């Protein structure tokens, strides 16, 4: 029996992450933050048939007067676009959503980011309830208030910080998740160990088989621990002026790969976000070793763990190092002084590093 777990995210707009089996049918928890009469459920074409009717029924049972609309879009990173964002806003207009309305994001990180951004923009900001259904969304994207859509020129280039009013993670939703997506989520779980806590890497190594076998208790613990790491840093630094940037470990490389591949992860012709981050973390760890900042053994340890989780650890063929470096210059961590990298001094101890020579970056990219 897996118990209910809660993680409090403090700060000026506090909220609770509730993690337990069965929450998709729990109207009281799903609607805990609702203030008005309108709710737009946003989901994708894979998730909606599995869970949307159950969420709607539970919400209606708890709040019979609720006027619920539904916006369902095609699945995949290549759909996290301004055009779909516009359609989501149109759905809010059709619903007649007032300023006390809420958006409920039911799905993975693509839905959470896009619906969250719609919530941030509709009438300059309405409430957002995140109901993550992928491991990646439970451990990372549903928490922290980063919302965005992609442009062809770069990942998450249009977005806003807009914290949710509640996060409701039903761990039984992970049972229908494709294996590939489970592994992608494990990449962001590994990230917390890599940047904050080598002891968590020990735990992941010890529980790798249980996690891959979708053992309920192991998954629930991985979700709750990950949310705690994220809540801690987001609470200290909600707008990424400081150490929240550490959550971007592996992302400067990973985002460049995703963008260069045209966000083709869903079709299998490219890496998805978690996979690209896995490659990026290995490159960041190698770069740290090449620069003499960290032991090469720690990079090998990270690579071994990611491989054990079935994740890619090398740049896919056909992506020229120079093209990836050019993509990285439009990363949100770059500023007028140039690129900033999240590197580490050792496993569990990440930091921001400037003035990394291009040659060293190109070398880990395979030039
Ligand atoms: N805002 C943040 O802080 C943050 C953090 C990490 C990642 N992200 C973003 O999240 C996105 C990646 O999220 P993702 O990995 O969840 O991808 P995703 O949303 O594309 O979901 C992956 C796939 O799983 C399917 N799916 C989702 N839940 C399912 C379930 N329970 N059963 C069956 N199928 C299911 C989806 O339809 C999709 O095909 C990227 O756009 C990334 O940039 C944002
Ligand atoms: O919450 C954060 O902060 C993160 O960086 C989490 C990342 O896993 C996530 O992919 C995020 O969307 C990347 O942010 P970006 O600012 O580089 O787009
Ligand atoms: Zn990420």
Automatic annotation (TrEMBL):
Cofactor comment: Binds 1 divalent metal cation per subunit. Can use either Co(2+) or Zn(2+).
Gene Ontology cellular-component annotations: cytoplasm
Catalytic reaction annotation: 7-phospho-2-dehydro-3-deoxy-D-arabino-heptonate = 3-dehydroquinate + phosphate
Name assigned to this protein: 3-dehydroquinate synthase
Pfam families assigned to the protein according to its UniProt record, in alphabetical order: DHQ_synthase (PF01761), DHQS_C (PF24621)
Domain 3-dehydroquinate synthase C-terminal span(s) in chain numbering: 185-334
Gene that produces this protein: aroB
Stated family: Belongs to the sugar phosphate cyclases superfamily. Dehydroquinate synthase family.
Named cofactor requirement(s): Co(2+); Zn(2+); NAD(+)
Binding site for Zn(2+): 188, 251, 273
GO BP annotation list: amino acid biosynthetic process; aromatic amino acid family biosynthetic process; chorismate biosynthetic process
SUPFAM superfamilies assigned to the protein according to its UniProt record, in alphabetical order: Dehydroquinate synthase-like
MF term (GO), any: metal ion binding
Residues that coordinate or bind NAD(+): 109-113, 133-134, 146, 155
Annotated compartments: Cytoplasm
Enzyme Commission number(s) from the entry: 4.2.3.4
UniProtKB keywords: Amino-acid biosynthesis, Aromatic amino acid biosynthesis, Cobalt, Cytoplasm, Lyase, Metal-binding, NAD, Nucleotide-binding, Zinc
3-dehydroquinate synthase N-terminal domain: residues covered: 71-183
InterPro entries per UniProt: Dehydroquinate_synthase, DHQ_synth_AroB, DHQ_synth_fam, DHQS/DOIS_N, DHQS_C
EC category: lyase
Function text: Catalyzes the conversion of 3-deoxy-D-arabino-heptulosonate 7-phosphate (DAHP) to dehydroquinate (DHQ).
Pathway: Metabolic intermediate biosynthesis; chorismate biosynthesis; chorismate from D-erythrose 4-phosphate and phosphoenolpyruvate: step 2/7
């Amino acid at each position: 029996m897996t118990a209910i777990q809660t993680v409090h995210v403090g700060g000026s707009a506090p909220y609770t992450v509730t993690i337990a089996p069965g929450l998709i049918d729990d109207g009281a928890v799903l609607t805990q933050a609702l203030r008005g009469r309108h709710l737009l459920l946003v989901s994708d074409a894979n998730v909606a048939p599995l869970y949307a009717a159950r969420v709607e029924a539970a919400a209606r049972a708890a709040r019979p007067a609720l006027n619920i609309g539904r916006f369902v879009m095609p699945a995949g990173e290549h759909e996290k676009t301004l055009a779909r964002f516009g359609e989501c806003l149109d759905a809010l207009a059709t619903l007649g959503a007032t300023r006390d309305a809420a958006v409920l994001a039911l799905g993975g990180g693509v839905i959470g980011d896009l619906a969250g951004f719609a919530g941030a923009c509709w009438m300059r900001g309405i409430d957002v309830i995140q109901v993550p259904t992928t491991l990646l969304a439970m451990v990372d994207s549903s928490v922290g208030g980063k919302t965005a859509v992609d442009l062809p020129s770069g990942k998450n280039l249009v977005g806003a910080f807009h914290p949710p009013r509640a996060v409701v993670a039903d761990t039984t939703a992970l049972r229908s998740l494709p294996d590939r997506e489970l592994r992608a989520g494990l990449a962001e779980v590994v990230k917390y160990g890599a940047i904050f806590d080598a002891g968590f890497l020990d735990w992941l190594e010890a529980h790798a088989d249980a996690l891959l076998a979708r053992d309920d208790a192991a998954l629930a613990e991985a979700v709750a621990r990950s949310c705690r790491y994220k809540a801690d840093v987001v609470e200290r630094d909600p707008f990424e002026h400081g150490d929240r940037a550490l959550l971007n470990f592996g992302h400067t490389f990973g985002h460049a790969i995703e963008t260069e591949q045209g966000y083709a992860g869903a079709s299998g012709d490219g890496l998805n976000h978690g996979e690209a981050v896995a490659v990026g973390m290995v490159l960041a760890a190698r770069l740290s070793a090449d620069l003499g900042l960290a032991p090469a053994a720690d990079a090998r340890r990270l690579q071994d763990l990611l491989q054990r989780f079935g994740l890619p650890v090398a740049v896919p063929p056909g992506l020229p190092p120079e093209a990836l470096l050019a993509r990285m210059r439009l990363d949100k961590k770059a500023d007028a002084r140039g690129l900033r990298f999240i590197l580490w001094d050792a496993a569990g101890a990440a930091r921001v590093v400037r003035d990394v020579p291009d040659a060293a970056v190109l070398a880990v990219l395979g030039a």
